[in-house]
C-alpha cells in the first residue's frame, strides 16, 4: 500500500513589519519600527488611537492611526483597556496587520521580515498512484519568499 501525504504549512510573522520612509529629522530614508506603545487621544466621546512607530536612528515618531474619531462606545472595553495599558500582544498584532499599513500609506520593508513556518496539519491517505507528498504553504501576507527557503523545511 502506498500513501498520499498532504502537509500544510502557514507562514507566520515573528515580528512586526518594518516601515521604510523618509525621516524628516534624519533627512534620509530610514526604518521605522514598532515601539509597541499606543497613543490614545480622547475628544469628547470620540477617540483617536494610534500605534507608535519610531525611526531606528533618531527615534522620531510616526503614528499609525488605528481608530480615528471613533465613538468610545463602539470600541470593545477590553480592547480599549489594552490600548491604555500598552498591551504588547495587541501592539504586535497591529504591527503585523497589513491593512493598518495600507490605510496609513506606510511602506512595509519586505526585505526585513522575520518569519517562520508553522505546520497546520498533515493528512495521510492511502494511494493507488504510488507514494506522493504534497506540501502547501499558506502565505497570508503574500510575502516573496525564495523557493530554496521553502524547501529547507
Ligand atoms: Zn530619523
Low-confidence stretches: none
| Helix-strand category | alpha+beta
Radius of gyration: 21 Å
Number of strand elements: 7
Q: On the 0-100 scale, what is the average pLDDT? A: 90
Bound molecules: zinc ion
Individual helix count: 4
What does this structure look like?
The chain has 153 residues and is of the alpha+beta class. The chain has two domains: 2-12 and 114-151, no CATH class; 18-103, no CATH class. Helices cover 18% and strands 48% of the residues. The protein has helices at 77-84, 88-95, 98-103, 147-151, and strands spanning 2-13, 19-23, 28-43, 46-55, 61-71, 115-127, 132-138. 12% of the residues are buried. Bound molecules: zinc ion.
Provide key terms for this protein.
2 domains, 7 strands, 3-stranded mixed beta sheet, alpha+beta, 18% helix, 153 residues, elongated, binds zinc ion, 4-stranded antiparallel beta sheet
List the helices and strands and how they pair.
Elements: E1 2-13, E2 19-23, E3 28-43, E4 46-55, E5 61-71, H1 77-84, H2 88-95, H3 98-103, E6 115-127, E7 132-138, H4 147-151
Parallel strand pairs: 1-7
Antiparallel strand pairs: 1-6, 2-3, 3-4, 4-5
The site of zinc ion has 8 residues, from loops.
What can be said about this structure in brief?
By secondary structure, this protein is an alpha+beta fold. The protein has helices spanning about 75-85, 90-95, 100-105, 145-150; strands at about 1-15, 20-25, 30-45, 45-55, 60-70, 115-125, 130-140.
